[in-house]
Amino acid sequence: MKVKVKFFALLREAAGTKELEEELEEGATVRGLLERLGDRLPKRFRELVFEGREVSRNVIILVNRRGIRELDGLETKLKDGDEVALLPPVSGG
């Protein structure tokens, strides 16, 4: 199955692209996708998305424009055609 991943702001710079399409196995989860991206993309991406071996709670993750906290968190199962958006924490002043 194919999933589209979109990167925003600092994460876009770290990934070196604004979006990509990732081929995943059926039943793949958000956690599995992030681990795969962390292995494939530049080291800076992994440093921003992970704290040690865990996904940083500061990264905002949306699946089809819904926050994963509204779904099953990092264990949210992905389906063919899903769109995953990765955003850095919101800051402002």
Structure report:
It is built from three helices and seven strands, in the order βαβααβββββ. The protein is an alpha+beta fold and about 90 residues long. Strands 2-1-7-5-6 form a five-stranded mixed beta sheet. The protein has a two-stranded antiparallel ribbon with strand order 3-4. A hairpin with a 2-residue loop joins strand 5 (about 60-65) and strand 6 (about 65). Helix 1 (about 10-15) runs antiparallel to helix 3 and helix 2 runs antiparallel to helix 3 (about 45-50). The protein is globular. It starts with a strand and ends in a 6-residue tail after the last strand. The mean pLDDT is about 95.
Sheet with most strands: strand arrangement: 2-1-7-5-6
Terminus-to-terminus distance: 41 Å
Low-confidence stretches: none
Strand content: 25-35%
Number of helices: 3
Percent of residues in helices comes to 25-40%
Q: How is the biggest beta sheet arranged?
A: 5 strands, mixed
Would you report the number of β strands?
7
Radius of gyration: 12 Å
Mean pLDDT, rounded to whole units? 94
Order of helices and strands: EHEHHEEEEE
Q: What gross morphology would you assign? A: globular
Q: Indicate the structural class.
A: alpha+beta
Give the tags:
28% strand; 93 residues; 27% helix; alpha+beta; two-stranded antiparallel ribbon; five-stranded mixed sheet; single chain; globular
Summarize the structure.
It contains three helices and seven strands. The chain is α+β, with helices and mostly antiparallel strands. A hairpin with a 2-residue loop joins strand 3 and strand 4.
